[in-house]
TrEMBL record:
Keyword match Lyase: no
Organism of provenance: Kineosporia babensis
Signal peptide start and end residues: none
Keywords: DNA-binding, Phosphoprotein, Transcription, Transcription regulation, Two-component regulatory system
UniProt cross-references to Pfam families, sorted A to Z: Response_reg (PF00072)
Protein's name according to its UniProt entry: Response regulator transcription factor
Length: 132
């Protein structure tokens, strides 16, 4: 069982993800915006965050960057979930630090499969600092 945090401003999406991920055996917490999500992540230290891009106040990209800059959260896997689905959008999401990207509308079964796949992979941080 993994601890999963869902950060999405759409209550219907939050409910759908809660049901799908809970049914898959995970402990799921919900947050309606980026600020609440960052607070929850800091207190929970989840195994994975499902993160909407288009959030009020702070975008999912901002939240993802903040997580990557926070030593305690930098190793948490992030699955970006967004209606923004162009190739450029997906690249921006990954440049912000997302480990995966799913475009809305989505299949709950496919999302659960992607979550399981991400959780089974060893999370690696690439250190781009050269050794001199």
């Amino acid at each position: 069982m993994a601890e999963i945090l869902v950060i999405d401003d759409d209550p219907d999406i939050r409910d759908l993800l809660y049901i799908a991920l809970s049914d898959a055996g995970h402990a799921v917490r919900l947050a309606p915006d980026g600020d609440a999500g960052l607070r929850a992540a800091s207190g929970l230290a989840p195994d994975l965050v499902v993160l909407d891009w288009m959030l009020p106040e702070h975008s999912g990209l901002d939240v993802c960057r903040a997580m990557r800059a926070d030593q305690a959260l930098s190793q948490v896997r992030v699955l970006m979930l967004s209606a923004r689905g162009t190739e450029s959008d997906i690249v921006y999401g990954q440049q912000a630090g997302a480990d995966g990207y799913i475009v809305k509308p989505f299949s709950p079964k496919a999302l659960v499969w992607r979550v399981e796949s991400m959780l089974s992979q060893e999370h690696k941080v690439i250190d781009a600092t050269p050794d001199f």
